[in-house]
Design a protein that fits this description.
With 176 residues, this protein is an alpha/beta fold. It has a single domain (3-175), classed as Rossmann fold, CATH 3.40.50.360. Helices cover 35% and strands 23% of the residues. The chain has 6 helices and 8 strands; from the N terminus they run βαβββααββααββα. It has helices at 14-26, 65-74, 87-93, 114-118, 122-132, 157-172; strands at 3-8, 32-36, 43-44, 48-56, 95-96, 102-110, 136-137, 142-146. Helix 1 packs across helix 6 (157-172). It is globular, with a radius of gyration of 15 Å. It binds flavin mononucleotide (FMN). Flavin mononucleotide (FMN) binds at residues 10-15, 56-60, 67, 70-71, 108-110, 112, 120, 146, 149, 151.
Length: 176
């Protein structure tokens, strides 16, 4: 059966909450599986009709090994399964059975002044990596706000993520 796949990276759990809410919104039209990048298959079969990826902004970019290590140093309560594999590394290995797979990206970020937000590039890089691997973007990237580095999400962000998921499903599974 045709389905959607939502792949995320999350250190404090906020991007995971958004990924699950997006899947919830998708699931009205398209069954959706949510999986962490470190555990996701790198070969995507033709049963997947939509790929959604997302994760946090770290140092105005997608997380890297060094920023994950820095976060673990600063937050000893974090227990990451690995600092080596996140969304960036997973996208680097991604291959598609059916090129042209519909895709969209999101990121989570602090509520910075407008000028700083302009320089946060996680979702831009996610989009570039998606298209480099042969995906076709079906919607502009979406950004979800946290109130502090550890979270929580700003009020209303989960609901917004569900709505975004529902809108993405309509893009790929129109008028079913
Ligand atoms: C090492 C590190 C660097 C960060 N740099 C940024 C940044 O440049 N811009 C920003 O908006 N948020 C930044 N943040 C806050 C993250 O965006 C926030 O922790 C993340 O969105 C929470 O998502 P998560 O719970 O899924 O990890 C940073 C957080 C960490 C740990």
């Amino acid at each position: 059966m045709t389905r959607a796949l939502v792949v995320y990276e999350s250190l404090f759990g906020n991007a995971r909450t958004i990924a699950r809410a997006v899947a919830d919104g998708l699931s009205g039209q398209l069954p959706a599986t949510v999986v962490a990048a470190a555990e996701a298959p790198t070969r995507i079969g033709s049963d997947v009709a939509l790929l959604v990826v997302g994760g946090p902004n770290h140092a105005m970019a997608m997380p890297r090994r060094a920023t994950r290590e820095g976060a673990v140093r600063d937050h000893p309560e974090l227990h990451l399964a690995t600092v080596d594999v996140g969304l960036r590394e997973w996208l680097g290995e991604l291959s598609l059975e059916a090129p042209g797979l519909a895709a969209a990206a999101f990121d989570t970020r602090m509520d910075h002044p407008r000028m700083l937000v302009h320089f946060d590039h996680a979702s831009h890089t996610e989009e570039r990596l998606l298209t480099d691997r042969g995906c076709r973007l079906v919607a502009p990237a979406e950004h979800f706000r946290v109130t502090a580095a550890e979270g929580p999400l700003q009020a209303g962000e989960e609901a917004r993520a569900r709505d975004w998921g529902a809108a993405l499903a309509r893009e790929v599974a129109p008028a079913r």
